[in-house]
Amino acid sequence: MPNLTQPVLYGAAIHFFPQLASRALKRCAHNTKNVMLAMLLASGTLLSPLASARQDTLLVVVESGPNSMDIHGIGANRPAYGASWNSYDRLMTYGAKTLPDGTRMYDYTKLEPELAERWELAEDGKSVSFYLRKEATFHDGTPVTAADVKWSFDRALAVGGFPTFQMKAGSLEQPDQFEVVDEHTFRVHFLRQDKLTLPNLAVPVAAVFNSALAKKHATEQDPWAMDWLKNNTAGGGAYRVTKWRPGSETVYERFDDWKSGPMPAIQKVIVREVPSAAGQQALVERGDVDIAYDLGPRTVMDLGRSERAQLISTPIENAMWYLGMNTAKAPFDNAKVRQAVAYVLPYQKIMDVAVYGQGVPLFGSATDQDWPRATAYQTDVAKARELLAEAGYPDGFSTTLSFDQGLSLISEPIALLTQEALASIGISTTIEKIPGANWRAALLRKDMPLLINNFGGWLNYPEYFFFWTYHGQNAVFNTMNYINPALDSLINQARFEPDQESYRSLIEQAIATVYEDVPRVPLYQPVVSLAHQDNISGYQYWFHRQLDYRQLKKD
User: Fold this and answer.
1) pLDDT tens, 457-487?
2) Residue 125 burial by Cβ neighbours in a 10 Å radius (0-12, 13-18, 19+)
3) Per-residue model confidence as pLDDT tens digits over 426-435
4) Can you count the helices (H) and strands (E) in the chain?
5) CA-derived radius of gyration, the chain
6) Would you say 91 and 208 are in contact if contact means Cβ atoms under 8 Å apart?
7) pLDDT tens digits, 232-253
8) Which residue, 214, 265, 215, 213, is CA-closest to 239?
9) Integer CA distances (angstroms), 208 to 13, 150, 197, in order
10) Is 263 helix (H, G, I), strand (E, B) or coil?
């Protein structure tokens, strides 16, 4: 007999198939012979056959979903990267490699064709020409042309914020760098020799939009159709978004006329948002879903004891969870205050209680030469009190500690442990939970005094991480408002330094600078984890930390 003391399972059943559950329960309620059926449905037992009824449909659960369909949109969150990645093409993509444990991941050293079937560097090294697939079309059947590529790149430069800064990270800064040679030939002119220019054309921001469709929804006040594209797609990628209910569900269907790669095996993907970790775990263990993605550390630990699901965890390159302090606001404009905070944080408790060991510690050692690397900071309350007194705050102060509620499985326990530790040196904190849909916009305002966040650089180079997070000249994710002209110079030099010995010296100086000034305190390097059923294969880790449905198979 099912265990009806597990309300999470009932909630999961109702969440995933509310109409089916409601109808069945009503039918069964008046018939005592069907009581068992009602109980089985309520417990979730009958969901497994439904989940596997179609071999070409994939059921996925995540903690939170996209807040926009537009990768260029202001405040587009990380799940929005996944929506764009699957529904839009880029000129090129990355190859893949197999890790020692047998899992697969992208290979950032290898670029491969996607919408462009080939490309050629000019003999003088000052430009690259892309030759588009002549048979490629957008989802509405409109042929893809070089004019669409230029419109899309011009748009990324024009809208400002994250997409514009991302283009600049690869020295793509001016519309006149983008040339339509003919209907199927597109040329990019280089401003300078930059090793990140071509890799930058394979990231989500370099998506190619159906310009004719977008222009139909543009206005004089909104020339780039930002309002319409936030809620609609205009792509030609391997999947079409056929249904999107923000906060609940996103449905993708395969675009059978896709020409930019091998036809995906999965025809339909249903992604449901299940914020409850217990709910995710229950659905996986009962076989009610095919994949649970971006799992919390506790769920990974619990599922590790289960024989039901397969687990894959991959360290996220060029990424860290951190505690950030707004250096433009007192008292965090004082380096000694920031250092005091760095010395009082309960690092090991965070690793044990909040992260359950699912990550690479970034504290207590300065000997590692890799990036991201550990700082020399470790928990030392006496040292913290001493630094706080030297900064002029012997009795502490009050502040606000903010985090993304959409990532509360990790953020909230870190916040509570941090709050407790800061109280031990007189710093009183009020915890502010910001809804996931609003978090990116809150970050971009750069007005939060103290925050918990994570950041990962798409391109796996230390100077790329620094360019985004520490550069003082309008760096989008410099959420700490950290201004240091000397550091900016180091970052700029490292980006374009061809000599490896000089490059390494510049990187070491940059790391030493930010770890001394500590505008953000590194906590740990995260992993991205998923659980899948035995009949699912083909998963590949990507730098944007989103699922690519094109590689997945269901046997």
Assistant:
1) 999 999 999 999 999 976 778 999 999 999 9
2) exposed
3) 999 999 999 9
4) 20, 22
5) 25
6) yes
7) 999 999 999 999 999 999 999 9
8) 265
9) 39, 9, 17
10) coil
